[in-house]
Design a protein that fits this description.
With about 475 residues, chain A is of the alpha+beta class. Chain A contains 10 helices and 27 strands. With about 425 residues, chain B is of the alpha+beta class. In chain B, strand 2 and strand 3 form a beta hairpin. The chains are: A alpha+beta (about 475), B alpha+beta (about 425). Strand 4 of chain A pairs parallel with strand 2 of chain B.
Chain lengths: ~475, ~425
């Protein structure tokens, strides 16, 4: 069952934040500012957390927070502010307008914003098995059940199992007349399994859910059993060897690779003030072999990074980032779209009420290719097949990411299981080294992307397995 | 006593109020131009209650928000058994009040600091796409409990970060200055930034093998976070720590002493109490390589039959904040300085790495003391820097490789955001390197 966000009637109905009254108040604040442009986002966020460490239920919490964020552009400068108390929204907005004018006076090149349509709609989330209709008791029972399943496994030392729910109701207004009410709703059951034998201890992650549909969280016992089995098998695995190797990345790993290594460089705010990289990443640059096609798509059904409208009041659209190996698009804010002279993409997002939006991926994907997994394995004499995303990091063109486990490949055949794998490389040579692309994609169920101090759960991937001819493995 | 605590008495068995207010101004220059002025005015509240023997919590933006005790009571009804009591009245060490000049810094002051710094760098080198950010942050933290704790502390600090992307690389060089005092033009920081940037002109990849690695203060998180993971109370309680039974035994080099010292006078991040209102004290956690004690909050201390070490924190590996439940964390760590400058240490090395950052730390098996990261730093040959590292990974287990630390520098600096404190350069004799 899929969830959809579409224009419908206002659901902002709580007494203290009556939708129409709040919108009118906020629109009045930004409309009255002495600035070339201003916007204000106000959020009411309900969060529910259930957390087990081992067999101990260490946290049960369900609560609401609220607050807002205001931005202003004046005389070519920009200022932003966050506030907790809505009564201070007006004062903070005035301070921001003054600061923006100060900032503008210090810039040789004024900041501008690309034109965007005025939007006056509401976008609530609708879903048949909407997690908001599920009782707290069922959420607690399900989390307890999954946690117990893990702890009953052989050679399992401990586990962390968390239910993490985020329901955000947002109002966005700007000085151009946009007045938008929208929702973000998602939940995960996620955590890690720790297996132990003697001095060897291994962790395997799991995550179910990723949007408003509770059906994605119920009935996942078989998937969890597989993760428990991997944690147990890893106790017999050997550490990976250090050196340069060809690798096959499973869909989870290829998703992290394309997100970390390339995706962040497609976010225009990271390039905006880096002249050397802007030169290197001009549209039309040949980045990879023609087999590689990469896109960002906030409309993919049932993915964590799916949304209709961003936190700058711009509709999210699919952007082709690499087409047949050629750089063909970029992700933008209104400011960076004006700076680069490229189309709006609707990728400005903030994870919560106190944060300024930044440009970030929605769901990044690699289009399926024509290679089979067996052909990929057969093409490698001495290398690794790496499985299961374990997080990654990027800085400019340098990337590093881990695998939860892997297998040696010797003479074209899969071999023994390996553990403790981290790999790194340089983006441009590694993109060129992608030599095979599998025919079937898989999506991620858990977002999780850190940027500008904001950990974003609304970040998805949809990728096939890929072969890279050479990466650096940091083993033993 | 705050009205909230007065009102909570009688409604629940025990209650705890955590209230943090921050006011910050952040001015950022990118590619030599003023990009943004940001100002935050935030308040956040965490409430914990123990009711009918169970623990519950809730969060809000103000203690005046209605129904907080009832919300926490509802959470407690579904919560786990409370195994500890909230903090009683504490004997808190005196920590200096915030510098009033720092607390009064305005956006104009910070703009001026950024521009003075930019101009000083450009007078020596005008070809860099400089990023400079200057920040003032004031924080007021109050923790009160029905058991008697009334802990209040205010801080103010100024932060200056200078960075520039390395041409043709994408990664950058950065230098960080943090102080409780207002910052003036940081001549020393600027000179070191320019020297390090000058080292990036060439690239170098060492051969795969083992060699000495000199960890700069900024990169100390690579070995301090695995150590935290081994010392923190949850890993001790669950017996998943590799050093759970090794108190009193050597776990690191005898040249390494690590102090928990959050009450250091004038220290950045100094504070008299932890995030549960328990008093903080200066104590060694590792002394001359020997494990002296763990990091405990009230829950984990009770679970292993000890008392809290005053290490409860709402910080966690990636972020944290008021809505994060307290768990053990180093509030402020110090490693005593050595006698040689880091340049003298480098001069004595035939081939080695100087590492100031590592990418991909969180993907490693750090709870077991391991890290495997892409090394960001410099390749040293014949005692001199021959280029910035490219395509180089390093892997280590701190309980094996950090038994051989042969030099500690006289200079100390601040670790990157993860951990508060002052840390010197640390030379480890042999680390696995994956290069060419």
């Amino acid at each position: 069952m899929q969830c959809a966000a579409e224009p419908l009637e206002s659901r902002y109905t709580s007494e203290e934040s009556d939708g129409d009254a709040m919108k009118e108040k906020l629109a009045g604040i930004v409309g009255g500012l002495s600035a070339d442009y201003a916007d204000l986002r106000y959020e009411e966020n309900r969060k529910t957390r259930i957390s087990f460490k081992g067999n101990q239920l260490v946290e049960v919490a369900s609560y609401e927070t609220s607050g807002g964020h205001v931005r202003a552009y004046a005389k070519g400068g920009k200022a932003v502010a966050s506030f907790s108390d809505p009564a201070r929204a007006g004062r903070m907005a005035e301070a921001v307008a003054t600061s923006a004018a100060i900032a503008g006076g210090r810039r040789a090149k004024p900041l501008r914003m690309a034109d965007a349509p005025v939007v006056t709609e509401n976008f609530p989330i609708h879903c048949e098995q909407d997690l908001r209709k599920v009782s707290f008791q069922e959420k607690l029972d399900l989390t307890t059940h999954y946690n117990q399943m893990i702890l009953e496994g052989a050679e399992i030392a401990t586990a962390e199992t968390n239910y993490d729910e985020f329901v955000s109701r947002r109002i966005f207004v700007n000085s151009e007349g946009s007045v938008i009410e929208y929702e973000i709703v998602l939940a995960n059951i996620l955590g890690f399994i720790v297996s132990k034998r003697g001095n060897v201890m291994q962790r395997v992650r799991f995550a179910f859910g990723g949007d408003a549909d509770f059906a994605r969280i119920r009935g996942r016992e078989e998937d969890l059993k597989k993760r428990i089995a991997f944690a147990q098998q890893l106790l017999d695995a050997e550490p990976a060897k250090a050196g340069l190797f060809p690798v096959i990345l499973d869909p989870s790993e290829s998703g992290v690779f394309i997100h970390e290594a390339f995706g962040h460089l497609s976010e225009a705010d990271g390039l905006q003030n880096n002249p050397a990289f802007r030169e290197k990443l001009q549209l039309g640059a040949k980045l990879a072999k023609p087999i590689l096609n990469v896109y960002d798509d906030p409309s993919l059904p049932a993915h964590p990074g799916t949304y209709v409208i961003d936190d700058e009041g711009v509709r999210g659209v699919r952007t082709e980032l690499i087409t047949e190996g050629i750089l063909s698009g970029r992700l933008h804010s209104r400011e960076t779209a004006a700076e680069f002279g490229e189309p709006l993409s609707g990728n400005m997002r903030a994870v919560g009420e106190v944060y300024t939006p930044v440009v970030r991926m929605s769901n990044i994907g690699i289009m399926p290719g024509t290679d089979t997994f067996d052909d990929m394995v057969a093409s490698i004499d001495h290398g690794y097949y790496l499985v299961g995303a374990k997080g990654g990091q990027t800085s400019g063109d340098q990337f590093t990411f881990g695998a939860q486990w892997g297998y040696r490949i010797e003479d074209g055949k899969l071999g023994t299981m390996v553990r403790d794998i981290n790999m790194s490389g340089e983006l441009f040579s590694t993109l060129q080294a992608i030599s095979m692309v599998g025919g079937k994609t898989e999506g991620s169920e858990r977002g999780g992307c850190g940027k500008a101090g904001q950990s974003n759960r609304l970040s998805g991937k949809d990728t096939p397995p890929i072969k890279i001819d050479q990466v650096t493995i940091g083993g033993v | 006593m705050h009205e909230f605590i007065k009102n909570a008495k009688g409604k629940v068995d025990q209650a705890e109020l955590y209230w943090k207010r921050t006011h910050s101004i952040d001015v950022s220059y990118e590619n030599n131009q003023l990009q943004e002025i940001a100002e935050d005015d935030l308040s956040s509240v965490a409430v914990r209650v123990i009711h009918e023997g169970k623990l519950g919590s809730t969060f809000a933006v103000s203690p005046e928000q209605e129904g907080l005790v009832e919300q926490a009571k509802t959470a407690a009804a579904n919560g786990d058994k409370a195994t500890f009591s909230f903090a009683p009245d504490g004997d808190y060490a005196r920590v200096e009040p915030p510098n009033t000049e720092t607390a009064k810094l305005t956006s104009e002051d910070l703009v001026s600091l950024c521009e003075t710094t930019r101009d000083a760098i450009q007078s020596k080198r005008d070809d860099l796409a400089l990023s400079i950010s200057a920040q003032m942050e004031k924080e007021s933290l109050s923790i009160e409990t029905t058991e008697g704790a009334q802990a209040h502390h205010e801080t103010a600090q100024s932060v200056l970060v200078i960075s520039a992307p390395i041409k043709g690389a994408g990664i950058g060089v950065y230098k960080l200055g943090v102080s409780t005092q207002p910052q003036t033009t940081p001549t020393g920081l600027i000179d070191e930034f320019l020297e390090w940037y000058g080292w990036t002109g060439k690239t170098s990849t060492p051969a795969t093998g083992r060699m000495p690695v000199l960890f700069a203060p900024e990169a100390s998180f690579l070995y301090l976070l695995p150590l935290w993971a081994g010392l923190e109370g949850n890993a001790i309680e669950k017996k998943t720590s590799p050093i759970v039974d090794r108190t009193g035994e050597p776990i690191l080099s005898e040249n390494l002493t690590i102090l928990e010292d959050s009450v250091s006078p004038g220290g950045v991040g100094a504070r008299p109490f932890d995030d549960e209102g328990v008093p903080c004290r200066r104590r060694p956690v590792v002394e001359n390589g020997v494990l002296k004690g763990f990091l405990l909050d009230q829950r984990t201390a009770t679970a292993i039959g000890q008392t809290s070490t005053g290490n409860a924190s709402k910080r966690e590996l990636f972020g944290g904040g008021t809505e994060t439940k307290p768990s053990p964390w180093p509030l402020r760590w110090e490693i005593p300085a050595g006698t040689k400058s880091y340049r003298n240490i480098m001069a004595g090395l035939d081939e080695a790495l100087l590492v100031y950052y590592g990418m991909g730390f969180h993907s490693g098996n750090y709870p077991q003391g391991q890290f495997s990261i892409q090394a960001i730093g410099f390749h040293i040959k014949g005692g001199e820097v021959v280029g910035r590292l490219e395509n180089t990974m390093i892997s280590a287990n701190i309980y094996e490789d950090f038994k051989n630390v042969s030099a500690i520098s006289a200079e100390r600096g601040h670790p990157l955001g993860f951990i508060n404190g002052v840390i010197p350069y640390v030379l480890v004799d042999s680390i696995q390197v994956a290069g060419s």
